[in-house]
Specification:
Helices cover 24% and strands 30% of the residues. The strands form four sheets. The protein has a seven-stranded mixed β-sheet with strand order 8-7-6-9-10-11-12. A seven-stranded mixed β-sheet has the order 17-16-15-18-19-21-20, with helices on both faces. A five-stranded mixed beta barrel has the order 1-2-3-5-4. It is globular.
């Protein structure tokens, strides 16, 4: 290949000699073929690869890795045999230390590029284990014409299932359920339609585990409840495995990428699992949010309390997007009066139940509400705002409320560096708030996802 190719000189099927310089948010190598930007899934920084162009985007080409000509010294054999095709993990072929460096750099670059923030980024808080850590799995299902049930994660860049019976990032206790449950589902005549387009039926298998309690919950996600024999099969599952405390059916009739619907029915046993987190007892339902890496999520608590120890005595803390009270309760246990705001009524019910179970109901109040509206009402009287929003980040209404009623401390736990940077930009550039800490934490080893704890304080 010549060294001065431009986009118009390339075509689908062309082979390019690409020097890879970085990774995309999806874990694909980013390099250039002449002046054209090329994304190469499976390639790593510092590598020279031969890539075949497969799709032309507006500003770049997508390609397929044909050959690694010069390998990165940090390339390794993935611990999972399906890593090259399964889209669940995109960085298994990169050494853990290199993953950690990239994640820290990714956070720093997002802050600089999007928000012009050049604050020091603390070294990534690496995970103590990088396999067997996930306490939850939601696995898409399909039935082949021969009746075989396939289940697994989607092939990278597609909607095709990579069939699996074992997944090394799942806790071994729920991993051991995948293959026998698929076999039992294959023995039924239930329809399986994971996209909800062809008559409906089963869509996904959801598994949840309390890492400390060992309790497991099986949930089938279906577009309808016409599943004859489900009660019998559910009772067999709760009797077969000591750790399985319940089986539920979640109904998601909409043809949407929202995995779970609003209605969950208990079929056998009980609808929740117990978990111990930050020396507190929690009850978690199959359709409520809880961080998938229990031990790493727990490490946020001492970080949070250390930051707040330098503040005045505990006052009113608002926990926005509080879920089941994961961080509300540790704050209350440390002496704060906590108001948790959450749109999901089921999560609020469990948060109240968890507060009572830990004797913290006098220090906690929870409201099922639109977070933006409730925050505008309550933030002026708060000393601390803790926010753990969805991946899309904060609504602009929430950012405006923070600017107009700035709390003494703001702690933001983000799962998306890009939306974090976007949200921080007006808070910092306004001069109202000072950035104290940017701490990346690895909640998702072997993926490009990175959690970031950010601490700000109100300027005098």
């Amino acid at each position: 290949m010549g060294s001065r190719w431009v986009m118009t000189e390339l075509s689908i099927g062309s082979r390019c000699d690409v020097m890879v310089s970085d990774l995309s948010q999806d874990g694909a190598g980013i390099g250039r073929c002449g002046e054209a930007v090329v994304f190469v899934p499976g390639a790593l920084p510092q590598e020279r690869v031969l890539a075949r162009l497969v799709h032309r985007g507006r500003r770049h080409w997508l390609s397929q890795l044909d050959q690694v000509l010069v390998a990165s010294p940090e390339r390794r054999r993935p611990p999972c045999s399906l890593a090259s095709s399964c889209g669940g993990c995109s960085l298994q072929h990169l050494a853990p230390a290199a993953q950690a460096r990239w994640k820290g750099d990714h956070v720093a670059q997002a802050l600089q590029r999007i928000a012009a923030i050049h604050h020091p980024v603390a070294p990534l808080m690496a995970a103590p284990i990088d396999l067997g850590y996930r306490n939850r799995a939601i696995i898409p299902l399909e039935r082949r014409s021969d009746g075989q049930v396939r289940g697994g994660y989607y092939r990278r860049g597609s909607h095709r299932i990579v069939n699996l019976n074992q997944c090394p990032v799942l806790d071994p206790r729920i991993d051991a359920l995948v293959e026998p449950i698929k076999a039992d589902l294959a023995a039924t005549d239930w329809p399986i339609d994971r996209d909800g387009h062809n008559g409906g039926g089963l869509r996904h298998l959801a598994l949840r585990l309390g890492r400390r309690s060992g309790e497991m919950q099986i949930t089938l996600i279906s577009s309808h409840d016409r599943l004859p024999g489900l009660g019998t099969l559910a009772r067999q599952w709760t009797n077969r495995w000591d750790g399985v405390v319940g089986v539920s059916l979640n109904l998601q009739p909409e043809a949407t990428n929202v995995l779970m619907g609003p209605q969950t029915r208990l079929i056998s046993g009980r609808a929740t699992v117990r978990e111990r987190f930050a020396d507190l007892e929690f009850t978690i339902a199959s359709d409520t949010f809880f961080q998938v890496f229990t031990e790493q999520a727990e490490r946020v608590v001492p970080l949070l309390l250390d930051v707040l120890a330098s503040a005045d005595r505990p006052g009113l803390a608002i926990d926005a997007y509080c879920g089941i009270g994961t961080y509300s309760l540790p704050l209350a246990a440390a002496g704060w009066q906590v108001l948790g705001l959450e749109i999901n009524p089921r999560s609020v019910d469990l948060a109240q139940r968890n507060a009572k179970a830990n004797g913290l109901e006098q220090r906690c109040a929870f409201a099922a509400c639109d977070v933006a509206g409730a925050l505008a009402e309550h933030l002026p009287s708060a000393d601390l705002l803790f926010i753990d929003p969805p991946r899309r980040g904060l609504d602009q209404e929430v950012v405006a409320t923070i600017l107009s009623a700035t709390p003494r401390r703001l702690v933001y736990l983000s799962c998306n560096p890009a939306s974090l940077a976007r949200d921080l930009k007006p808070l910092v550039s306004s001069g109202r708030m000072e950035l104290l800490l940017v701490q990346p934490i690895d909640f998702f080893p072997h993926t490009t996802h990175v959690e970031t704890l950010v601490v700000l304080r109100r300027r005098p």
